[in-house]
Amino acid sequence: MTHCLKPLIAVLLLAVASNLHAEMNRAFEASAPLEQLRGKLTGVLDKFDREGYELEAESEGFAYAYYNLRTSPFTYRMYATTVSEKQPVPILRVEGRSGDVLTISRILQIEGIVRTESPVLPNGETITFAPLEHKSHILGQSLNFVAPWLGVLHSSYGSPRLTTGQTVFRFSMYFGADAFLLWAAGRNWFRDRWNPGRYAGNIALALAVPRVIGAVQSANLVRGHNRLVELKYTFPIN
Predict the structure, then answer these.
(1) Angle at CA of residue 233, ends 77 and 82, nearest 5°
(2) Which one, out of 3, 93, 135, 157, has a CA that is 20 to 30 A from the CA of 237?
(3) In the sheet where 53-55 sits, what is the strand order?
(4) Exposed e or buried b per residue across 172-204, where buried means at least 16 C-beta atoms within 10 angstroms of its C-beta
(5) Could you give phi then psi for residue 203, rounded to 5 degrees?
(6) How far apart are alpha carbons 158 and 44 in whole angstroms?
(7) How far apart, in whole angstroms, are the C-alpha atoms of residue 59 and residue 99?
(8) What are the angstrom distances between the C-alpha of 126 and each of 30, 114, 120, 121, 210?
(9) Burial label, 115 (beta-carbon count in 10 A; 0-12, 13-18, 19+)
(10) Contacts of 56 (CB under 8 A, 6+ apart)
(11) In what helix (H) or strand (E) does residue 65 lie, and over which residues does it extend?
């Protein structure tokens, strides 16, 4: 049993690592005074993450802070403060996984919560924005069942929820986990020669672990993406 648990624990640790990977933060000058900003921010959160956020009790020196609950399809923390008493410029800081930080930053720009300039490419052209297309939960979960790394591609394609770096990392993580578990379970957890016919039960049990993890991640990514579609938010065209 100990031999069986070690590879499964390794996969679970990889899943945790995928959640911690590519953390980032961005800070903006808000478009309203600090107290007015609080009401506007709550209004925007109610639009794209209703009942999925909460006011944080410990704001770590900031005036106030919001964070996502476990029921939220997004992962973020938002802190509001001012530069100083002499310069009461309201600053809004967004932290979380890189895809969600970029997604929420775009939402804040659309809703006029933060001050931004028109984005321009190095060649002088302006960036084009377009609405997102709806994603299928059934297709996403079907692909995840076949191979979680295929589910990652479905969740990432045409969506701001995962950056290129996150996509490559998760794809590699799931592909590597499948290969490792197939090999380890087929050897009866390193106690015998590789024999997939004899140890088919071990293989099936081992491969179920990344698929369960992938199913949860895929459901949250697609759920959040489709919420952005419903709200008709636009994002940069790659």
Answers:
(1) 35
(2) 93
(3) 23-29, 90-97, 76-82, 64-68, 53-55
(4) ebbbebbebbbebbbbbbeeeeeeeeebeebbe
(5) -65, -45
(6) 23
(7) 23
(8) 23, 19, 4, 6, 41
(9) middle
(10) 64, 65, 66, 67, 77
(11) strand 64-68
Q: Retrieve residue 47's tokens.
A: 């639009």
Residue type, 175: F
The Cα–Cα gap between 99 and 101 comes to 6
Phi/psi for 60 (5° steps) reads 55, 45
What's the pLDDT tens digit per position in 19-45?
Answer: 555 678 999 999 888 889 999 999 999
Q: CB burial class (10 A; 0-12, 13-18, 19+) of residue 117?
A: exposed
Residue with structure tokens 């049993």? 1
Q: Could you tell me how many residues make up the chain?
A: 238
Q: Please, which residues have CB within 8 angstroms of residue 33's CB and are 6 or more apart in sequence?
A: 88, 90
Three-point CA angle 62, 23, 12, nearest 5° = 120
The predicted-structure confidence for 133-174, as pLDDT tens digits, reads as follows 999 999 999 999 999 999 999 999 999 999 999 999 999 999
Whole-structure pTM value: 0.86
Residue 44 tokens read as 């925007």
